[in-house]
Design brief:
Number of helices: 13
Structural class: mainly alpha
Strand content: under 5%
Number of domains: 2
Number of strands: 4
CATH architecture of the largest domain: Orthogonal Bundle
CATH class of the largest domain: Mainly Alpha
Length: 325
């Protein structure tokens, strides 16, 4: 029916709202087929990663776990010996020497490296000219620190006729090779690790840029000095970044290998003073061909890293401050 308006004109009737037609079975099938094709395409792109995960990571991990309970020399069939490889570690003097050297390296070099990286990050955060150039230059040692070339350079610096001794001789000071003295050899590797401060420095610099300037300005208005602002505002807000760098550098220090291998010529000398744990694993597995014992030591290292990381996460509840807390 038509309706008569106030002006006397006839208006057409309002048409009912159109409803969306329900999808037909054919459309449902096409939509399902499209989703299925997308799923297969996603699996195809993920296939290289999945193969790498199985063949490069998961497979060798399971194999090493099995070999840890065997006597295996890479040439003959592995022979199951139970926990003999693990009990052998308790009586292995070189094993405990490697543990002491590695713990010294981790406990000393990681805090020194993080402290030096934080110090330089604070300096660079002051808006220096050419900041990108400084940042790139300071980051370069992190890219090269674990390389064979830098380790060889370190031998030339701390060797008998190296750069350090040449500089000391200029002032009339005679010194022996820093690398041939068991008291100083491990400290040269610690200095090398501290020198690779670039990666944590860049992370610290990014964390400093996220601290609100309003908080620092308010503290300055209240009469807080630079030291007080740094200890009461900067450090608490930077604790998540400190914790992140601590975990990353600690794991990296436990796994250090190239520096000690090149500097000591693969022997861990003098007197096992540079015998890193990973270097001893390499010696047992690929020089003594005692792959079962090497696999057992590798799993001990994995457990130690996991325990140390877990302990740091538990301890972080007491000193790491998050903004939403």
């Amino acid at each position: 029916m038509t309706a008569l308006s106030d002006r006397g004109t006839i208006e057409p009737p309002e048409s009912p709202p159109e409803s969306t037609p329900a999808p037909t079975p054919a459309k449902k099938r096409r939509r399902g087929a499209s989703h299925e094709r997308q799923g297969w395409i996603a699996h195809i792109f993920l296939l290289p990663w999945m193969l790498g995960m199985i063949l490069v990571t998961a497979g060798p991990l399971v194999a090493s776990a099995v070999l840890a309970f065997t006597d295996y020399d890479l040439l003959t069939t592995p022979e199951f010996i139970g926990f003999d490889n693990f009990t052998r570690m308790a009586e292995d003097e070189r094993f405990w020497a490697a543990v002491r050297v590695t713990l010294l390296y981790v406990v000393v070099s990681v805090p020194l490296q993080l402290g030096f990286a934080l110090f330089l990050a604070i300096l660079l955060d002051k808006g220096l000219r050419g900041l990108s150039l400084y940042r790139s230059a300071f980051y370069l040692p992190s890219l090269l620190g674990g390389s064979v070339a830098i380790a060889i350079l370190w031998r030339q610096i701390f060797g008998d006729a190296g750069l350090i001794n040449t500089a000391l001789a200029f002032f009339g000071i005679e010194a022996d090779s820093w690398l041939q003295n068991p008291d100083t050899a491990p400290w040269t590797l610690i200095v090398l690790n501290v020198w690779t401060f670039g990666s944590p420095m860049v992370i610290f610099l990014a964390g400093l840029r996220q601290i609100p300037e309003e908080l620092l300005e308010a503290a300055e208005v209240d009469g807080a000095g630079r030291v007080r602002r740094f200890m009461s505002i900067t450090i608490p807000l930077l604790t998540p970044i400190i914790f992140l760098n601590l975990i990353l550098q600690m794991i990296s220090a436990f796994q250090a290998f190239t520096q000690a291998h090149v500097v000591s010529g693969g022997t861990g000398g003098p007197l096992d003073s540079t015998l890193f744990y990973t270097l001893y694993i390499y010696q047992e597995g690929f020089r003594s061909f005692d792959m079962g014992y090497a696999a057992a030591m590798a799993w001990v290292l994995l457990i130690v890293i996991a325990v140390a990381t877990g302990a740091n996460f538990i301890a972080s509840r007491r000193w790491v401050y998050y903004g939403d807390e």
